């Protein structure tokens, strides 16, 4: 039986590990990570709890942590001028499932829990960035593709 529960601050190291494993899964070379990557993630999580209502949920299956998801109020890159009751974006990030627990509906359950949380704090929209592997999961819970323009600059 799967249990999805809110993570405690004492479990932040688990979240750090999951977040880094996501980047590893994209093929990120070790030398591309900042030396203080783990500390940066911890700082982001801790400030997010205070400033953006960040919450993380853990999926526990057979007594083991099988996955996690984080969600929070979206950090707008521009001034928000619309009242929150009409436009308050939530952001879902770091949906991760441990390899041994994949293909069991855990990512879908975690994403649904994050959506419920964002609704409960008044969000009118949930936003996430999907990997190719994650896109079908997010579609099953109602996400649709949205336009984003991106220009990648060559690295030096």
Helical segment count: 4
Tertiary shape:
globular
Q: In total, how many domains does the architecture comprise?
A: 1
- Which CATH top level class fits? Alpha Beta
Q: What order do the SSEs take from the amino end to the carboxyl end, as H and E?
A: EHHEEEHEH
The separation of the N and C termini measures: 49 Å
Fraction of residues in helix: 25-40%
Strand order of the largest sheet: 1-2-3-4-5
> How many individual β-strands?
5
CATH architecture descriptor name? 3-Layer(aba) Sandwich
By secondary-structure content and strand pairing, the structural class works out as: alpha+beta
Oligomer: single chain
**CATH topology heading:** Aminopeptidase
Can I get a quick summary?
The protein has helices at about 10-25, 35-50, 105-120, 135-140; strands at about 1-5, 55-60, 65-75, 90-95, 125.
3D architecture notes:
- The chain is of the alpha+beta class.
- The chain has one domain: 3-Layer(aba) Sandwich (Aminopeptidase), CATH 3.40.630.30.
- It has four helices and five strands; from the N terminus they run E-H-H-E-E-E-H-E-H.
- The protein has helices at residues 12-25, 37-51, 106-120, 135-140; strands spanning 2-6, 55-61, 64-73, 89-97, 125-127.
- A five-stranded mixed beta sheet has the order 1-2-3-4-5, with helices on both faces.
- Strand 2 (55-61) and strand 3 (64-73) form a beta hairpin.
- Helix 1 packs across helix 2.
- The mean pLDDT is 96.
């Amino acid at each position: 039986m799967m249990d999805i529960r809110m993570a405690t601050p004492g479990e932040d190291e688990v979240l750090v590990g999951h977040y880094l494993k996501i980047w590893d899964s994209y093929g990120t070379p070790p030398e591309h990570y900042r030396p203080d990557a783990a500390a940066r993630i911890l700082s982001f999580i801790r400030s997010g709890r205070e400033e953006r209502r960040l919450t993380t949920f853990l999926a526990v299956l057979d007594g083991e942590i099988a996955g996690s998801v984080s969600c929070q109020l979206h950090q707008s890159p521009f001034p928000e001028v619309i009242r929150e009751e009409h436009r308050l974006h939530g952001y879902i990030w770091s949906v991760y499932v441990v390899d041994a627990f994949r293909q069991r509906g855990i990512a879908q359950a975690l994403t649904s829990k994050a959506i419920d949380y964002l609704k409960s704090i008044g969000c009118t929209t949930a936003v996430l960035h999907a990997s190719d592997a994650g896109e079908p999961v997010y579609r099953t819970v109602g996400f649709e593709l949205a336009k984003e323009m991106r220009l990648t600059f060559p690295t030096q």
